[in-house]
Amino acid sequence: MKFKNLGMKIAYLGLFCSLTLILSFIESTMPSFFPIPGIKLGFANIGIIVVLYIFGLPFAILTGIIKSIFIGIFSGNIMSIAYSLSASAASILFMCFFKKIFKNNINIIFVSIIGAQIHNTAQIIAAGFIMHSTAVIVYLPFLLIAAILTGALTGFISSLILSRLKISLN
Amino acid sequence: MKFKKGDAAALIFSLLLIMFSFILVFIYTHSNSGLNYIEIINDKKIVSKIYFTKLSSEKIVEVKTNIGIMKIHIDKNGAYVSETHCNDKLCEKFGKITKPYQSIICLPQKIEITIKNENSKNNRFDTVNR
Questions:
Q1: A101 interaction partners in chain B (CB closer than 8 Å)
Q2: Closest of A91, A86, A153, A76 to residue A125, by C-alpha
Q3: Residue of A nearest to B130 (CA)
Q4: Is B17 an 8 Å CB contact of chain A?
Q5: Alpha-carbon gap, residue A118 to A48, rounded angstroms
Q6: Is the CB of B6 inside 8 Å of chain A's CB atoms?
Q7: Which one of A61, A92, A107, B53 has the fewest beta carbons within 10 angstroms of its own beta carbon?
Q8: pTM above 0.80, yes or no
Q9: What is the ipTM of this complex?
Q10: How far does A102 lie from chain B, in Å, by closest CA?
Q11: pLDDT tens sequence across B25-65
């Protein structure tokens, strides 16, 4: 995707950063649809996928960092920055890896599923380190199975956003 | 939406991840994580320490308290209080404890019966999350 000038690029990047922040803030106020605590839809991933597809890896990482820090400050839970940063970074790297290898041969939905699963795995590993306990690993299979559903949903929504954006930006 | 080559790879990757996590959980739950034992504390002093998992028959421990004698049944699965002389009889009603860090506590008689694990002697909690 090409932009007319730097200003437009910065404006769009800011827009997606705020989209990510607002989505994850709205999500934190919504009640959970799932009986298992810790499972959420992960709407914040929509913004990150869109940034990854339009602007590439460095800006996606930047958005991830901004999202993690600001959500930590918004929610007043500073420890969540550590969980969120590691998870975002890992999931963005894996999504970018799959996107780079298969280029046009992979649907956004599956990239999103990989992102959601890696996000959960990284978060469990971070929780294990922070709590000095390996007991959290029992939680992982449930999270990974749920990640297929939630990842597919966010991937589907981001593919809709991307298809509309490509029309309006070109 | 067409199913593409990369999708199959992503799907295989995610299924492998799920399988791997199940294997990890299997290893975690089946690993020998130290013996469990029952600790009976009477007025802040440890009265007895019983490795109950090796018991072949039921064992009755009698503890002399400030009110009377408390009878604690211990078998290879866990422990429960069968007889006590205080008014509430909360410890009797509590039932059987079977898992680490479960405990029966009687405040009036100052008795505490806890299942503990050898590997985490100094650690009374799995984790504390702030």
A1: 6
A2: A86
A3: A79
A4: yes
A5: 14
A6: yes
A7: B53
A8: no
A9: 0.81
A10: 6
A11: 888 777 656 678 888 888 888 888 888 887 888 888 888 88
